[in-house]
TrEMBL record:
Keywords: Amino-acid biosynthesis, Cytoplasm, Histidine biosynthesis, Hydrolase, Magnesium, Metal-binding, Zinc. One of its GO terms (molecular function) is phosphoribosyl-AMP cyclohydrolase activity. Signal peptide: none annotated. PANTHER family: HISTIDINE BIOSYNTHESIS BIFUNCTIONAL PROTEIN (PTHR42945), HISTIDINE BIOSYNTHESIS BIFUNCTIONAL PROTEIN HIS7 (PTHR42945:SF1). Pathway: Amino-acid biosynthesis; L-histidine biosynthesis; L-histidine from 5-phospho-alpha-D-ribose 1-diphosphate: step 3/9. It holds the Pfam family PRA-CH. It comes from Novosphingobium anseongense. This is Phosphoribosyl-AMP cyclohydrolase.
Amino acid sequence: MTTVSAIDREKGTAFLPRFDAQGLLIAIAVDSITREILMVAYMDEEALAKTRETGLAHFHSRSRGKLWLKGETSGHFLRVQETRVDCDQDALVMLVKPEGPACHTGATSCFYRKLEGEELAPIAG
């Protein structure tokens, strides 16, 4: 196993994703037009490779323990327009074109509530 230095990862031009102990990294889907955060999920190496190969967001389902194509049952795919990588390459922001609601509840975004004191309140809009 080749060790990657922090300098190579943080200052270099090579894509060197840093997966956690469970083999995952954070993936944040953001609407490429509105810049609204749509969802947060995890990717393993397979999900990352499939996303890059197809242009459709794939994730690792922690609850099912397997590859998950966002939209495979709902038809609400996320078409990746651009992928941004954070400084230490353990998180991605994907600018996406959503083909329907991103949240399994039917909401546009999974972030449809805000914390007000000790309660959750719907976000207008």
